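Sequence in, structure out.
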Amino acid sequence: MRIATFNVNGIGARLPALLQWLEETQPDVVCLQELKAPQEKFPIDAIQAAGYQAIWHGQKNWNGVAILARGQLPIETGRGLPGDPDDSQSRYIEAMVSGILIGGLYLPNGNPAPGPKFDYKLKWFERLIIHTEKLLDSPAILAGDFNVIPSELDVYKPERWLDDALFRPEVRDAYHRLLAQGWTDALRTMHPDEKIYTFWDYFRNAYGRDAGLRIDHLLLSPSLAPTLTKAEVDRHVRGREKPSDHAPVWVELDV
């Protein structure tokens, strides 16, 4: 079973690129982030024509998450991260697909830091940690753009990112506390010592220079981790015409 995450950076602008990648790779489940589209503008007809059913949580101009499943409808189990009834940002969606609980997330960027956006990021992270504790006993995967650079190995020239909200100590600490619950970072597990990136900025020829970041993660629960056989980044997708600034990331599970 192949499960992927892909920050598309606008489902409207990137739909052709998404459909091309879906046709080429045929993942079983895909978590999308940054739809940047209201609920009624999600291109469900094109997604269904590609062989996928979907649930999505849209938001005009910003954020937005979705879960796609090939040949079946994801069974929604949650929409919006619990813990703050006043939070209107579309950043979390959850579903069962083929007996696996899928948590699709788009964690806040948090810049500029310090400041209100950084405070929101930390509070959102704490809510996530509280919620994921309840998922650990299930075969579960957390998939998405975490906006967290876990370590110096995960960033080109880490000294330039010390004050950035993606790399500040508070954020990395929250990420490692999340892992300490029992989650397995699939990509790092399969590539323990490799510089492997999932995001390259549009500016300064970042992709051409391989000046990237690893901020898109797939975390496996304790019962699912032993089934992990492969984890990769489809980095060539970032090099195509009119790409997202992220590349798809995926795992294969022997389930």
